[in-house]
Amino acid sequence: MAKIIDGKTISMEIKEEVKEQMEKLRQEGKKAALAVIQVGADPASSVYVNNKKKVCAYVGIESLAYELPEETTEEELLALIGKLNGMEECNGILVQLPLPGHINEDKVIDAIDPRKDVDGFHTKNVGALCVGQRAFLPCTPAGIIQLLVRSGIEMEGKECVIVGRSNIVGKPMALLMLRENATVTIAHSRTKNLKELCKRADILIVAMGKPKFIGREYVKEGAVVIDVGIHRNENNKLCGDVDFEDVKDLCSAITPVPGGVGPMTIAMLMKNVHEAVSSAATENGR
Ligand code: NDP
User: Which residues are annotated as catalytic?
Assistant: First the structure.
């Protein structure tokens, strides 16, 4: 049986660290506030937004909630972001995605002051990450690096295959693994011989959005498997992109769903908000 990479425990460690750091900042007379903007009342988004508010309260970050109606125009949203950019007491701005179809997400993300872009999605932060400069790192891929580091899994020189090339997971994940000196391959829906490719991986990271797609025929014996996918199955139970039961005896370590990558995203968001306040972003994002 593989080692289970415990995202619940590791994310709690990070939240405790941020809580301590926030307490230190408070003693220096500094405060932190995160603006969380939700447009429309998508139930899944509401769950994510509420979780973010709860964790903010836990670590000592004030959350400024903006719950806007579905029919909010792009101009109105851009005006709010402009206002928050100029508010000194607001350190981070998060726009919950997806936005309703009539609003251009790219335009909205690029309207956020890059120094307040705690999601790490602004093109300036993405570009900085790409050329190895200091940047806010996208929370899910940065959380995966933390899972690997804190589980003692070596990345340097390892063959890493990432399935998925989205802007929020696959692409930044590849850049972060490169930064850790892994040899990186990115696979996507047009990749040929996906099985053979995945079977080469010492570290296989799956972010494809296809429930239980990856079975043991994709996994090399002893590989580390990181499952980013989150789905509800027919019994309303959560599952990932990896068929956990099928691969768990073959790999050396694996993240479960739930309790693997999922909890890391909010923890890393809190870390980014702290960095926005203290301007203490480290060069290697650890
Ligand atoms: P996207 O749908 O944006 O991207 C999916 C990627 O997988 C695409 O690059 C797509 O290729 C690729 N893909 C799809 N089908 C195949 C296939 N058959 N073979 C190879 N590649 C394939 O998803 P996200 O990156 O946003 O999310 C991925 C999963 O991770 C989802 O389940 C999502 O819910 C979850 N997620 C979890 C988070 C967490 O906090 N744990 C955070 C973010 C996402 P192509 O580009 O060619 O279409």
Answer: 52, 96, 119
